Each structure stands twice: as C-alpha cells, then as structure tokens.
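Whether sequence alone determines local backbone shape is best considered at the level of individual chains. We regard such an encoding as a compact summary of how the chain folds. The sequence in question and its structure tokens are set out directly beneath this paragraph.
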Amino acid sequence: MEGPLAAALAADPAAGSGYFDAYAAVGLLAVVGVLFVTVSFTANRLLRPAIWSPEKLLTYECGVDPVGEGWAHTQVRYYVYAFLYVIFAVDAIYLFPWATVFASAGYGMGTLVEMFIFIGFLAVGLLYAWKKGVLEWT
C-alpha cells in the first residue's frame, strides 16, 4: 500500500478506523443534555410568577415561624469522622477487587506487597489521627 493514503495512515493510525466516531455520539449526547438543562431553566425563569412579599422571603421551617438566629455552630469533629469514614470506604472499594484478583493464578508476592504498602499508608493516617486526639469523643 503506497501513496498519499498510506502516508496519512502512517502519520495517524486512527485516521481511517472510525475510532473517534464512538466519541461523537457521547459528545452529541452531552450537548443535548446541556441544551435540555439550559432550556428548562430558562423556561422556568420566564414562565414563573414573580410576586415578592415579605412572607415569601421568610425562612420556612415545617410551617413553624422561625425562632432565633439562623446560624448554628457545628463541631469540626463530625466532619473529621465523616472524612475518616470516606477514607476507609474508599479503602474497602480497593480491597475487594484486589482480593478477587489475588485469588487468580499468576498474581503473587508483588500484588501482596503492593496491598500491604497501601494498607500501611492507611494505618499511618489512622495512627496520626489517633495521636492527634481526633478519635476521642469528648
């Protein structure tokens, strides 16, 4: 195979294969989705009634008039516990597929060492949080 087509295929192997045609459908779907959201929000803004009153601007709490301030302090401890939960949930996401792959033939000491390194990083993070007193609930 010689000529300009062969030179073009040699320069870009994916030129004639239709490889990027599959991405065109994804791109078209993304554009349609963005247009749908844009049209929906614009129609909502144009068609809604806009009559403002002081009662509409009040905070609504289950039909009861609001009492006190709208600002409440939340301890950072709750966020730290949530963050630790997310870390260990992600750990579980990585451990389960690893356990299934490790059972297959051909995966040996290298895979085991990699997982122990990963678990070691998590253990160091947990030890750090424990030493800082983050895990104490007082």
Summary: Helices lie at 4-11, 21-47, 76-102, 109-131.
